[in-house]
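ok trying this again, last paste got cut off
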Amino acid sequence: MQYSHSRVECFETCAFKYKMRYLDGIKTIPDTEATNALILGTALHTGIEEGLEAGIQYYINAFPIISDAHINEMIKLEHWIPKVREMLPEGIYEQAITGSDFIGFADLLVPVESSGRTKVFDLYDFKYSSNQKSYMDSGQLHEYKYFIEKTHPGWKIRNMFFVFVPKVSIKQKKTESLMDFRERIQEQLNKELVQIVPIEYNPNKVVEFAMNIKTILETKDFPKEKSFLCGWCEYQEFCESEVNYMLLPKNERRNIETIDKKVVWLYGVPFSGKTFLANKFPDPIMLNTDGNIKFVDAPYVSIKDEVKNDGSRNPKRTLAWANFKDVITELEKKDNTFKTVVVDLLEDCYEHCRIYMYDKLNITHESDDSFSAWDKVRTEFLSTLKRLMNMDYENIILISHEDRSKDITRKGGDKITAIKPNLPDKVANKIAGMVDIVARVVADGDERTLSFKTNEVIFGGGRLTVTKKEIPLDYDDFMAVYDEANGKAVKATRSTSKKQPIETPPTVNAEDVPDSGSEDDSAAEASTADSLAPEVQEAEPVKEEKTEEPKPRIRKKRGE
């Protein structure tokens, strides 16, 4: 198994998180907040390597919708990327460090001298953070130096540096306009400085790395480590619910071609043809909220408040969201012959959920309980929607109206109108991560089209990549596009699964580990890496070892 610095660091932070991510392989819906640390960090790296435009484009493409908050973060990137590029010498970006028991990527290797087969480099690692202390104590660069020199005979690391790019985090005041706030962001940026901090090599850090691997291999129980970091953990919900969620499948490859479930989110202006298209799917049942069922022949359930008059002064009222949840429960039984479930309209369901939670929490608005009510409403809605997504029906179709009421203010002050589903941004971003395709229905007179365009203005996304940007609003045409996108995803997966393991250099042996205190102790701990079998850390592709002149590698989004 190949261990990375981030993999071992995850175990040290919380063993339960390590188990969820690396042993159980639990995937979560990506965080689409403007301040997502992984996306911002990768955008900064991309900009430093490929230029400002590439970095900004990466950041924009990472989100289904761009808001003013995203523009604020882009202002910071536009400030820092040129400054860092100006400060750094020329070198090799994203140098893979691949051994039989280690994997990593050096952000920048700068050649300083060369003599025969001996090549000397300075090593740089970029950090978009104001918390320098935690990184100064880290073993990352020490591990990189050791394994670079071990896997590349003749290579030597002379100096090591952390490049700290300050992360400016200030909030807009209630009395402050957006433009005034952005001026204040710029003022704060001008006060900050990029720092290049030298790090002195410590062989003890490499020994600690080997010791930690030994601990991981011997660990049977993975306890939870509660700390202030829990609020930023993607597994917080699993952890706090204490549900035994994991049932291991049979150890054999699945035939992806047999998976034909379609999960689609359609949005557009009223009467553009969204419901008409959904009606074309096989054996549909419509969970309808707006009464728009006159021109479709599918059976439907009306999602609305129900009042039963039993003759008393206070008739019994069942809220619409409670009825929606009852329908979901009934559909989960699969005691029916439906193949397609349509939710029409999704934003009405969200409003029904809000009213339901108001009643449950005894409030009149989320602001009445500002510390938790917003989260409780959102959690109730998304958790119920996940129940729907997890059902074993051939098609799940979500329908929303289009919203153009919100403008995005660019850096220069000009405004552009955002085109998105009529839902709160946080909710919409989460749903986009649940579906295969987000498609916009466009009505131009009598012409109806289905658009898959997505940019900083138009909301879009999904798991599948669609080549065509626009097609006629027709069921057969849509199925052809869907099947093409799904086929490409299957082909890519099949191609990846056929790749053979790459031979890597010898493992860490006792005699190879740098001296640190007791020779016997050091050797014993370091030799634990010898038992590791080849397994590549997720989202970090292994490159075949080469000893010739290294070439720059195009950065891709890295996992932890």
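PB: full thing came through this time. The radius of gyration is 27 Å.
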